[in-house]
Design goal:
The protein is of the alpha/beta class. It has 15 helices and 10 strands. It has 2 domains: 210 residues, D-Maltodextrin-Binding Protein, domain 2; 92 residues, Osmoprotection protein (prox), domain 2 (D-Maltodextrin-Binding Protein, domain 2), CATH 3.40.190.120. The strands form 3 sheets. It has a 5-stranded mixed β-sheet with strand order 2-1-3-10-4. A 3-stranded antiparallel β-sheet has the order 8-5-9, with no helix packed on it. A two-stranded parallel ribbon has the order 6-7.
Length: 334
């Protein structure tokens, strides 16, 4: 064999034998549903500690916010993955015949809460029936329907919520929506008292939250990339919850100048205390877990409220292909 051909063959063999570490990382653009905070700590941890890099991923996180429609960016192909706040959004994909699905539920409990002042008799969901409650438009078409079905709330109770705490702080009888890791902390800072915090998930609201969604096209064309992104994100969450959160916190503080270390500490503590990320079936199958039964039960409740048709194909909203594999569970303290 001529030397030139022999050299070419050798180079070809070396190329095929090259370890995965020498291959270029895949670029991924990932959209959040709000601005950087502890509720996204696992993803920032996966960047900061090199977990995504170890999975050969170069991840760019795009923050959300009131003026950002990440779902539209996903539809337009400008995002590879997007966070859906709750199970409604995945069911909406099905209802609207959009080719996107949930591939993992990082939150087993939705962090949505109702908040009231202490000492006013508003310390249970049942006690709030018939009373004015400030909620936003998205909540009205979402979990408010669960409260109507479960506790007999009516739309006449609804008052507009502008994401401004001043009306609540000025009225001791006020009740408003909130997010477990945010508003309770800010209210305590302003009043010196911890407000009454009622977590919808603890009342039977079974929506998943912080769902990673992507396109059917990406799943079909590059399932390995989807699996790597889901696995790395799961490992990032274990690291953020049970390891040193400092690397993620540093990136979050840089990304969101309005964030404080005190709020990050509170938010992470709330995620752990209430089992938002790692509880229920996640304790057996790992963070990110989903189940068909839970999807069907949630959809059934919302169908009964008239939000979806009875023939909705719920199984098209999600896939279990990339979760329930016990990834990262060794990092959980025993």
């Amino acid at each position: 064999m001529p030397p030139a051909i022999r050299l070419a063959c050798l180079l070809l063999l070396l190329a095929f034998a090259a370890p995965a570490a020498s291959r270029a990382a895949d670029s991924v653009v990932f959209g959040l549903d709000w601005q950087a905070e502890a509720e996204y700590g696992g993803y920032y941890q996966a960047i900061a500690t090199g977990i995504y890099a170890r999975y050969k991923l170069e991840v760019t996180i795009r923050q959300g916010g009131p003026q950002v429609n990440q779902a539209q960016l996903l539809l337009a192909g400008r995002l590879d993955f997007d966070l859906a706040s709750n199970s409604f959004l995945a069911l909406n994909f099905v209802q609207q015949k959009l080719p996107f699905v949930a591939v993992g539920a990082m939150f087993q409990k939705d962090p949505a809460v109702l908040i009231a002042h202490p000492g006013q008799g508003n310390d249970s969901f049942a006690a709030l029936r018939g009373k004015p409650i400030m909620i936003g438009a998205d909540s009205r078409t979402g979990w408010w329907n669960f409260l109507r079905a479960r506790f007999g709330y009516s739309d006449s109770q609804i008052r507009p919520y502008t994401f401004n705490l001043q009306p609540f702080l000025a009225d001791r009888s006020a009740i408003q929506q909130g997010y477990l890791g945010s508003e309770p902390f800010s209210i305590k800072q302003a009043t010196g008292q911890m407000p009454v915090v009622l977590l919808l998930a603890d009342a039977g609201y079974s929506s998943y939250a912080s769902l990673i969604t992507t396109s059917n096209k990406l799943i079909a064309e590059n399932p390995d990339l989807v699996q790597r992104f889901v696995n790395a994100s799961i490992e990032g969450w274990y690291s953020y919850l049970y390891g040193d959160p400092g690397p993620a916190d540093k990136l979050i503080l840089e990304a969101n100048p309005e964030m404080t270390q005190a709020l990050l500490d509170y938010g992470r503590g709330a995620l752990k205390q209430y089992g938002i990320v790692d509880s229920g079936e996640a304790l057996q199958y790992g963070i990110g877990t989903m189940s068909q039964d839970r999807w069907l039960n949630f959809a059934r409740t919302m169908v009964e409220q008239g939000l979806y048709p009875r023939d909705l194909d719920v199984d098209r909203a999600y896939t279990l292909r990339f979760v329930n594999q016990g990834v990262g569970t060794a990092a959980r303290p025993r």
